[in-house]
Amino acid sequence: MTSFRAKLKEVWSRLTWPDLVSAAVATAGLLTAILRLNGGFFSFLKYLAVLAGVYLLVRLIGWWRNRLLWSLRNRLIVAYLFIALVPVLSVVLLAIQAGKLLYTP
Fold first, then answer.
1. DSSP secondary structure string, 28-84?
2. Per-domain residue ranges for the chain?
3. 21 with 53: CB under 8 angstroms?
4. 32, 45 in Cβ contact below 8 A?
5. From CA 15, how far away is CA 44, in angstroms rounded?
6. Which of 23, 49, 93, 100 is deepest in the core (most CB within 10 A)?
C-alpha cells in the first residue's frame, strides 16, 4: 500500500497547467457565489467557474473510469471464484452430511 504522501505526489505530477488554472477559476467562482458578489466581472467569473467545473468533471471522469475498470476486473475475478467455488463446496458439504446421516449407527 502506498502512503498518502506518495499518492498526493503522483496526483500533483499528473496535473497540467490547464487543470491548475481551471481549479483556481472554479474556486474563485465558488467563493464569488458563496459571498454573493454581483456585478459584471463577478458574473463573468461565475460563468468561467462553470466552464472550469465542466472541464474538471470531464478530466475526473476519465481518471475515474480507468480506476473503476481496474477494480471491476478484480471484482469479476472474485465473483467468478465465488461462482465456481461456493457451489462445489456446498455440494461436497451436503454429500458429507448425507453420508454421516446414512452411515451413522
1. HHHHHHHTT--SHHHHHHHHHHHHHHHHHHHHHHHHHHHHHHHHHHHHHHHHHHHHH
2. 4-103
3. no
4. yes
5. 25
6. 49
DSSP state of 85: H
Looking at residue 39, what is its pLDDT? 87
Dist CA 40 CA 58 (whole Å): 28
Question: What string of pLDDT tens digits covers the 105 residues of the chain?
Answer: 578 888 778 777 777 888 889 989 999 999 998 988 888 888 899 999 999 999 989 888 877 777 777 777 788 888 888 888 888 999 999 999 999 999 877
Grid cell 472474485 — which residue?
Answer: 78
What's the confidence (pLDDT) of residue 70? Answer: 72
Let me know the angle formed at the C-alpha of 43 by 42 and 47, rounded to the nearest 5 degrees. 115
